[in-house]
Amino acid sequence: MIIKIFFDGKDEFDVNISYKKVNGFVNKLLGENNPYHGKFSKYSVSRLQNGTYLDGNVIFVDGAFLTISSCDNEFIDKIVLSLTYNRNELYISNLKFRKFELSEFNVHSEYDIIRTTSPIRLQTKDKFITFEDDEFVPHLREKSIKKLIHNGLTERIANTLDFELFHPENSKIRFYNINGCKNICSQVMLLVKGNKEARKLIYELGLGSSTGFGFGSVKLI
Q1: Number of compact structural domains in the chain
Q2: Per-residue pLDDT tens digits for 10-19
């Protein structure tokens, strides 16, 4: 399930700060001491969209929106209830919550082409892995399969999942400094093959690490 959340207003953020503000907004919706954080997050949050990037800042002159996706119905219900009952108190800085829409990832019969709405964060003990590295696709596949199995998919179905960079010449590396930690991420398009259930679930969960913090959110194109 996907929740698309719309905001009215104008504002300008440092690109790195915008991630913190989105994370703070989502935590406000979930409440204190919520059980949804962990190594394998069951949800994915996009960056704030509809902005213009200029010299390290993102400027919103005509409102903004973000998406939150999850396979957890209880989680979705919690977000929807918070949006409904606290609607007049919900802001991201000067951007005021206006409405939300619910939808699903409508996966195709054989494969999908997806675009990141927040760049993918992949990391080993030694380094960040980007689309320029040969191990990017194998590592993304391995991590995704583990995430699918952790969320109840059988190993047989999870192992059908596979990725291929789509128009890699248009891919970009993005740098984000959050709480003093440097994150090196990949903004990409991917061709995704495999079982339809596996594809839909991994889109809901997000690709890579820290998906609940605003990395690895995707949309179908």
Answers
A1: 2
A2: 999 888 888 8
Q: Both 144 and 117 in a single domain?
A: yes
**Cα–Cα distance, 102 to 73 (Å, whole number):** 12
Q: How far apart are CA 212 and CA 43, in angstroms?
A: 6
Rounded to two decimals, what is the model's pTM? Answer: 0.93
Q: Which two tokens stand for residue 62?
A: 């005509």
Could you write out the DSSP letters of every residue in 118-143?
S-B-EE-SS-EE-TTSTTHHHHHHHH
The 10s digit of each residue's pLDDT in 105-161 is 999 999 999 999 999 999 988 899 999 999 999 999 999 999 999 999 999 999 999
Number of C-alpha atoms within 13 angstroms, CB side, residue 211?
A: 27
pLDDT of res. 131: 97
CB 35, CB 78: distance < 8 Å: no
Task: Mark whether 119 and 213 lie in a shared domain.
Answer: yes
SS3 21: helix
Instruction: Name the average pLDDT for the chain.
Output: 93
Average pLDDT over residues 167-195: 93
* Domain assignment of residue 180, given as a range: 111-220
Contact 91, 83 (CB under 8 A): no
Task: Determine contact, residues 218/154, Cβ cutoff 8 Å.
Answer: no
Using CA atoms, how far residue 6 sits from 19, 61, 67, 166, in Å, is: 16, 14, 9, 29
Convert 162-196 to b/e letters by CB count within 10 Å (16 or more is b). bbebbeeeebeebebebeeeebbbbbbbbebebbb
